[in-house]
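Progress note, sequence design subtask.
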């Protein structure tokens, strides 16, 4: 079985058919996906802004990150769940879309920077210093790429 066959088989699942054939289900799932991304994006932005040396300057960056983490994780959980549902309903179309590949690679990189990079740096580097600024800029850039590639999927 080739990878294309696997994508076709996923698209043939009963749940995928229900989502695809419903007049309201796909848009409702997509709306939840976008709302979750906005929630997660806010949590990312507030921490990255703090790492850059701005925003909530009276609060240690570790505290800002700890307070924002549940919002990030909740948004990530909803975004992942809704993304899988959207993906299975159009798996055959996604197989050869460059935008989908770009989004998945950017998502993996963004999650690595956000989860691993922050864990390694947040307590060790003063906000506003070059390593913290580079981490924050990388995070923001990668998440922007995830959003733009996701939008590109709809137009490709």
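Output:
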């Amino acid at each position: 079985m080739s990878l294309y066959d696997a994508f076709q088989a996923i698209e043939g699942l009963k749940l995928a058919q229900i989502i695809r054939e419903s007049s309201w289900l796909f848009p409702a799932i997509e709306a939840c996906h976008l709302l979750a991304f906005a929630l997660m994006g806010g949590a990312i932005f507030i921490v990255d802004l703090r790492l850059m040396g701005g925003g909530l300057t009276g609060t240690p960056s570790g505290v800002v990150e700890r307070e924002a983490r549940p919002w990030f994780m909740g948004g990530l959980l909803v975004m992942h769940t809704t993304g899988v549902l959207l993906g299975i309903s159009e798996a055959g179309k996604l197989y050869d879309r460059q935008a989908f590949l770009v989004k998945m690679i950017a998502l993996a990189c963004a999650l690595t920077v956000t989860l691993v990079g922050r864990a390694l740096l947040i307590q060790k580097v003063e906000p506003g210093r070059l390593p913290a600024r580079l981490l924050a800029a990388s995070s923001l850039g990668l998440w922007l790429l995830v959003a733009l590639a996701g939008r590109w999927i709809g137009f490709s």
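The longest helix spans residues 61-89. Work on this subtask will continue into the next period as scheduled.
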